[in-house]
Write a structure and sequence with these properties.
single chain; 190 residues; mainly alpha; 6 helices; 62% helix; Rer1; Protein RER1; membrane
Length: 190
């Protein structure tokens, strides 16, 4: 007899294949991790292709609106700190110590900015959502008739209001979610 591993049921075969595909997908994601620019270029091209599809087909505005809301939600999570200083400020009012707050004075300890949603998870979720939206735009069941200018205006108002609130939060708690390269110092500075 051969000692071949054969699943005993059809469900075992399906499980084995899905596990194999899952491992291959994870290996592909792991290989793409260091290529930040190329990943975002792929996502941008996918988004443009989706919008061209919606524009040419003149439909699927609800799918595009849902994608826009989802991407806005992801972007806000990307901008926010993992440990919200407003919640910690409330906690610190109840406690005696100032544990977990962002430094506000020069003599306080520096703590780096840690995002609530890391860049890779942001990219992965956004790309997956764009591909799913593109896929949905080929099925008539998702083509709900709506007056699209209302959706566009509502999304713009939502974007402006949420970004205004987020920027006010960033100013109030003095954090910047972006770093532009490594700090460089002059030879003459002490």
């Amino acid at each position: 007899m051969d000692a071949v591993d054969e699943p005993t049921s059809p469900f075992g075969t399906v499980t084995a294949q899905t596990n194999k595909l899952g491992r291959q997908y994870q290996a592909l994601l792991d290989q793409s991790t260091p290529h930040v620019v190329y990943r975002w270029i792929f996502t941008g091209v996918s988004l443009v292709l989706f919008f061209v599809r919606v524009f040419v087909a003149e439909g699927w505005y609800i799918v595009a609106y849902a994608l826009g809301i989802y991407l806005l939600n992801l972007f806000l999570a990307f901008l926010q700190p993992k440990f919200d200083p407003s919640n910690e400020a409330l906690d610190n009012d109840m406690e005696d110590g100032a544990i977990g707050s962002l430094p506000t004075k020069q003599d306080e300890e520096f703590r780096p900015f840690i995002r609530r949603l890391p860049e890779f998870k942001f990219w992965h979720s956004a790309t997956r959502a764009i591909i799913i939206s593109f896929f949905c735009s080929w099925f008539e069941v998702f083509n709900v008739p709506v007056f699209w200018p209302v959706l566009v205006m509502y999304w713009i108002m939502l974007f402006v209001l949420t970004m205004r609130k987020q920027i006010q939060h960033m100013i109030k708690y003095r954090y910047v979610p972006f770093t532009i390269g490594k700090a460089r110092y002059n030879k003459n500075s002490n």
